[in-house]
User: Fold SSD domain-containing protein from Ciona intestinalis.
Amino acid sequence: QIASNRSRMRTTSSGPNADESELRERIRNDMELLTRPSWCDARFALSRLDQDKATGNRYALKLRSFLHRVLFKFGCFIQRNAAYVLIIGILALAGCCICLKFAHMETDISKLWVETGGKLEDELKYTASQSSSGSESSGFTLQMMMQAGEDITDLDSLKLHLDAAIAATKVTVVMYNQTWSFNDVCYKQAIPGDEDSSGSFILSTLERVFPCFIIGPLDCFWEGSKLLGPTPPIYLGPTMSDITWKSMNPLGLINTFREALSESSIAPELNEYYELMLQAGITNGYTDRWCLDPMDDECPETAPNYHSKELPDVKSILKAGCSGFATKVMQWPLDLIVGGIKYNGTGAIDSAQGLQTLFQLMGSTNMYNFHNSIKGGPTWSLQKAEAVLLAWQRKFADTLFAIKSKKVEDKIYAFTGATATDILNEFSNMSTMRVVGGYLLMIGYACLSLMRSKASRSQGLVGILGVVLVALSVAGGLGICSAIGISFNAASTQVLPFLMLGLGVDDMFLMAHHFGEIAVLSYIPFSERTGECLKRVGVSVCLTSVAILSGFLFSLIIPMPALRAFGLQAAVVTVFNLFSVLVIFPSILSLDLQRRRNNKLDIFFCFDRTRSNPYRIIQSNTVFFTKAYSNRSFVTVLGPVTETAVATDPPAPSTGTPPYTETPRTPPPQYTSKVDETLSQKVTPISNRPRVAFVNTNESSVPYTTRTPVGQLGERYYAPFLLRNPVRITVLVLFAGILGVSIYGTTVVKDGLDLGDVLPRGTREHDAIVVQTTYFSFFNMYVVTKNDFDYASQQQNLFDLHSKVGNISYVMRQTDGTVTKFWLQYMRDWLLDLQDNFDEAWRLGHVNASTWMAQASDKTVLAYKLLLQTGRAEEPTDPGRVGRIRLVSDDGLIPEDAFYNYLSAWVGNDPLSYAAAQASITPAPVSWKHKRDLNMIIPRSQSLTFAQMPFYLNGLQENEDFVSVIKSVRSVCETMAATTEVSSYPSGYPFTFWQQYIDLRYWLFVSLGCVIAAVFVVLSIVLFNPWAAAIMALFLAMIATELLGFMGAAGVKLSAVPAVILVASIGLGVEFTVHITFAFITSCGSRKERVVHSIGHMTGPVVDGAVSTLLGVVMLAGSEFDFIIKYFFQVLGILILLGVLNGLVLLPVVLSFIGPPPEVTPIGGGGRLKTPTPPPSPP
Assistant:
């Protein structure tokens, strides 16, 4: 009936005029095409410019028409092969996900936050290549035992500290079929014996006597000896007491051996031991120190309070500082062992709130070397050595935390190297529960937001599959990153899964919403609806993805490895998301479209609806036209529009080309003047609205709109309200105030990272960090001297360097006010002692220029040999130097020519001082041991390429303190390098971790600037619209500024992780601004009209994307880590809120004032293109 009617209508029209009439009727009813021509079909818009019916951005339209043609054909291909595309795409992503098994988690700070290619990286590499431990750090680690309370300077507190320390020394672990005790893992320095007497029981006994290095307040008292062992005590026979530090007088013991073995072969070595012990201050041991408990049965008789039983004055004893078993080389400043000190008016200690004991363990390299031939066995390796150390440290911490105090206010804490490692590992690990929970919330919201009451219009399953697809895309992208060797870090695991899912879901919602509109339009052939959707939405998706990708790639200019890894991973995942949304997701939409056509339920798509299908495809009044770039029809007449509402072009001249003529599909459609009455009753065309493809015959009186509920509210109510002049002015003033407050907030943002925030509050590790940072902010520091100069000729400059660094604030001094000695001072003091001994022997006539007498001591003989050295290989000794040259000149310098010979002698004959100096000299000096013989030649050590000056830093609480120390020390080193030949640099944990804050802000702002500039350039090129690109770049800068200002107001400190989020905020901001702006420039009409159109079309996808992203991030709020809540959840949540406010509130207002012109402007103005004018009637 319809066909026959059309046939009769066709016969009433003249031939050419009939086609033009059909074309005019189609265009004037396709409101989307007429109001948003460059969005729907750039080729059609360009044709209007060619016919002088409109003006606009021709270059943008040409590029857009090319993209439309490619995307349309690609979308049609996907719809024809939807199942194959979906299966192949899913398999490809799943294959990439398998690569996640190659993921490597990087927790080494030096490999995460050290500037790539910077001086710190070069310094660390130089340290690793030169230091004797073969690593970038020292050859030992310090394990901290801390005690905190209201006042810990009483006897009960010290006794608790003693019990805890004894328990720590008894810790053992069983690994690799061996029991590893404290004595096996601790760092100790024994006096090396002569190879010829290495088998002597006496000498081996003396070596066993030397204890592990322990630093603590107990060294001020006799009870400190209980920590030193040896365990078990050394048995010497029934006539002698067992050797233990609790009762041993070291000097008296070795004198006993010297007297008993004065005629033996080891007598010279015993004499040497005696001299070395005197030099190091190993004299009476602990037997002359106060006993905390004078009633203790083991308290020695030589203790000051043994007889009087007087209790010691703990405060006054501690104030003087403590010393270890070697009093001359082991002196502990008060601030190192006691914290939270309060002084009274006289300068005496009134109270203290913390005690600290440091247990020094070997580093992994030293551990491996030490046990390679002792307990390691044939399979011993560096990894096993490190595993034993970490296991022992964990057991150490468990033991100390288990100790209970009789004083409620006193508690024992432990912090070890293993704790720091575990913190980084724990913080870097991804929480599967949080990720899964966040993704499930996203899936639920996507399903509900796209679900409709009518199955033929519902997309709930599309929403579920879309989120799952994007999640699979994120996993696949990270899998590829793992395969190519990009390491993961805390930023990767805590931020990327949510950020990239949010960005991908935003594009998914955009495509799903617009497909929901296109899928119900009858004038688009069924087989071309996916192509039409991809044509319209694909450009916007590509635009945002390219802009985000450019931003992440430009963030690589920040030379921090962690940030570069984050940028690369985000860039790779962005590409995967683009592939998934443009290739795989359209296949899901195509299959869902087939479900709609077959009248299946939405989520339970295997079932039909329970009642007959009230939806049928309407073909009436449909006229198909051919696209200029394909052989497929694409447009249909929608429904009549009143003539008064439609502007028409003026009549065309009788000669010339008709406007925008296109060949209709064959056979040509036929019309009739009569319309099926029943059909007209079922379908009521609504002006300015497209006719839908699926018409509900039961609800003909209710017009259906393809807009989402959010979009309808936005277009009908929100946009008109927002565009009122008072509201616009209020919005501008309000956001100007927010921006002003944010700019102020950026000035109060502090740099740094509170370690207490990194750990779960309420845990023992968190409490230990708080105690450590509050009372014992203690760090090792070294000044490393390099190989760019001759050490022998630069001695005075080395002393000056040491003195200048020692005068810097926060550098800890000894109790007597002096700075910790370094190796050259130890060497000089040793030589001065020898010189004094030689001078006395010279005065007594025990030595002369040619030889020494029998009465001369071993020291005198050694000094004589040293004075003979010339440092020349061809003439190594010169007797003429004796009496003329001094071992140390009057100005305190060692003779340059014999400097390296003296170094060999010092290292071999004063090993305890060399160990205390922590010099790590490279190349290792020749260790020459003195013998009383006629061999006068002392071997020369090689020129030095590496040496360390040790310092202790204390009182570093805030990030500004660390930065101040770093700048001060580096300034001294750089000044010395500029004015002298001494080349040096600082080393240590503060310089490795806090160095990033020196240049972090600079690199952050450079990165933000480059990212915003990259987005501006990309948008300018793709849109051919610098005006629009400038507005979007301005908004991205505002979002970053407002986020940084919030951080300042909320007390979030700026560290590398927030810096990553700030850079990522540009990517998220693109999603909130580009879609609105793109919809604005592709619409026709005045600025206000285009704002209304853009809000109506884009509010739904933008809001859905923001809410879904927020639901994913909200799972972070349940984390046990304060750091994740404060630095991730709060910052990301505020970022999403700022993006929505700027994108949906401020941006429309700004566009209504200064928005760029539309890409297509009808001649004569108006909010839509004019319909083509029919050709003139033939004469």
Observations:
- DSSP finds 42 helices and 18 strands in the chain.
- The longest strand covers residues 140-148.
